[in-house]
């Protein structure tokens, strides 16, 4: 069973909801499984110790996850049109994996969430794709052959899955199209990883 790493940071639950849908898409592909991981918040108070284990939810990622998995799907809420600091901090600590080519030739995709449809989703998605290019990953998006991209009135783009939390009836509630696009992204990355594994 090959695993795809689903790595995300979520503060209020919306990005975590997208991550779970991505996992569903991954696990719809025969022989593929999702490894769901998060990252800790960046500590700004020096006197405040950071827990080594999350109080709830999935475990924290370690850089070695990049080498152990066959692909990566990464998610973050938007922060002024960029990825959130906790995810950026994690990526900044992966120099050893970059030197070793841990992600080289592996499929990778991204997802995000913002309060509004003009909250910087596309630039956030692109900001997460840049480190993947440096790592040598094969970028995978959502093509316009996916009907949900034509019909969504909330999140979703060819750059990756997304969610507009201000349009949701409750925090973390994804629209039907947002769920479909997130699952399609997960399934596409898992399928690419499976095909690459068959020809390795």
CATH topology: Rossmann fold
In the CATH scheme, the class would be: Alpha Beta
What structural class do you assign from the helix and strand content? alpha/beta
What is the total number of structural domains? 1
Strand content: 15-25%
CATH architecture annotation name: 3-Layer(aba) Sandwich
Average per-residue pLDDT, rounded, comes to 93
- Cα Rg: 16 Å
Q: Which spans of ≥5 residues are poorly predicted at pLDDT below 50?
A: none
Number of helices: 7
Which range best describes the helical content: under 10%, 10-25%, 25-40%, 40-55%, 55-70% or over 70%?
25-40%
The CA-CA distance between the termini, in Å, is 15 Å
The string of secondary-structure elements, in order, is EHEHEHHEHEHEH
Provide the CATH superfamily.
Flavodoxin domain
> What summary fits the major beta sheet?
6 strands, parallel
Shape: globular
E-strand count = 6
Structure described in brief:
The chain has 200 residues and is of the alpha/beta class. The chain is built from 7 helices and 6 strands; from the N terminus they run E-H-E-H-E-H-H-E-H-E-H-E-H. It has helices at 14-27, 64-68, 85-92, 95-100, 121-134, 147-151, 176-198; strands spanning 2-8, 32-38, 71-77, 107-114, 138-139, 161-164.
């Amino acid at each position: 069973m090959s695993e795809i790493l689903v790595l995300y940071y979520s503060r209020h639950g919306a990005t975590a909801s997208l991550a779970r849908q991505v996992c569903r898409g991954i696990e719809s592909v025969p022989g593929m499984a999702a490894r769901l991981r998060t990252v800790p918040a960046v500590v700004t108070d020096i006197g405040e110790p950071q827990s080594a284990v999350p109080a709830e939810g999935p475990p924290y990622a370690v850089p070695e996850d990049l080498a152990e998995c066959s692909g990566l799907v990464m998610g973050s809420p938007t922060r002024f049109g960029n990825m959130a600091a906790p995810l950026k901090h994690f990526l900044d600590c992966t120099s050893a994996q970059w030197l070793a080519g841990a992600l080289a030739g592996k499929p990778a995709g991204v997802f995000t969430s913002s309060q509004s449809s003009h909250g910087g989703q596309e630039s956030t998605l692109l900001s997460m794709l840049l480190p993947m290019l440096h790592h040598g990953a094969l970028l995978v998006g959502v093509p316009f052959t996916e009907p949900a991209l034509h019909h969504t009135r909330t999140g979703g783009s060819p750059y990756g899955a997304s969610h507009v939390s201000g349009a949701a009836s409750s925090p973390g509630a994804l629209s039907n199209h947002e769920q479909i696009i997130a699952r399609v992204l997960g399934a596409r990355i898992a399928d690419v990883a499976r095909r690459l594994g068959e020809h390795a």
